[in-house]
Structure prediction request, 249 residues.
Amino acid sequence: MARRKLIAGNWKMNGNLAALRELADIQAAAVAHPAVDVAICPPFTLIAPAVAAQPALAIGAQDCHEKVSGAHTGNVSAAMLKEAGAKLVIVGHSERRADQGESDALVQAKASAAVNAGLLAIVCVGETEAQRDAGQAIAIVTGQVRGSVPAGSTAAQLVVAYEPVWAIGTGRTPTVQDVADMHAAIRATLNDLLGAEGPGVRILYGGSVKPDNARELLAVADVDGALVGGASLTAAQFVPIIEGGAAVS
Ligand code: 13P
Prediction:
C-alpha cells in the first residue's frame, strides 16, 4: 500500500502575521518535493492570512468543536475552519487532552465533525512516560485509537499521529524499534477497525522531530510522515524535515 508521506507543522500557540513569511520557503520546498505532502497548522487567527499568503500550501487548524454551530462561547466549528480556507485539523493533541480534559469520545466526535465538514482529521494519540515505564504504552495507545477514530473513516479522511507525551518538546525520542513496534500496533488496530481502509491510513510520528533525526524516523516501517512542533516554526528547520521525508519516499 503506497502512502504519501505527510510532513505537518503544528505551530501550537506560536506565531504572528510576521511569521507567515516563513511559509514562502516552506511552500517552495513542497513544490520541490512533490512526492511529499506538506501542511502547516497555525493558530486560528492566522489561518485565513496564511491561506492568503500561500494559497497552494495546505493550511490546517489545531482543534475544532464537535458541533456545527450554537451557543459554545470561544469555540470554532469545523465548517468555520473550512470557510477560512483550512484543509485539515488536528484533534486530540495530548496538550488538549491534558489541559482541556478531552476524552477519547470527545476527540472522536471532533474527528467526525471535521470529516463531515470536508476536512482531513489528524487524530493524535500517545502515552505518558509513566505509562511507558509501566509497560502499558501499546495498550494505552491502541485503546486511544479505538476510542478516538470514527467508525467508517476512510484513508482519505483520516490520519493518526503517534506522539509520545514524554517526547514532545523534550528533545527525547523513542528508539527506532519502539517507534516501529508502536506504528505496527496502530496499523493492526486500524485494519481491525476500518477493514480495507486501514492499510491506506497514514500514521505520523511526532515528538522532537528535528532536521537531524527526521530521516531516520521517517524511514521506519509504517511511519508515514511527521507531526512537527518547534521545528515547524521556521523554514530553516522545517524544510530539511520535508527533504528528509522526500529522501525516504
Ligand atoms: P515538538 O516537535 O516541539 O516536540 O512537538 C511535537 C508536537 O506536539 C506536534 O504536535
User: Anything to note?
Assistant: Strands lie at 5-10, 36-41, 58-61, 88-91, 120-125, 158-162, 202-206, 225-228. DSSP finds ten helices and eight strands in the chain. The domain at 5-247 is CATH 3.20.20.70 (TIM Barrel). Residues 10, 93, 163, 168-169, 206-209, 227-231 surround 1,3-dihydroxyacetonephosphate (CB under 6 Å).
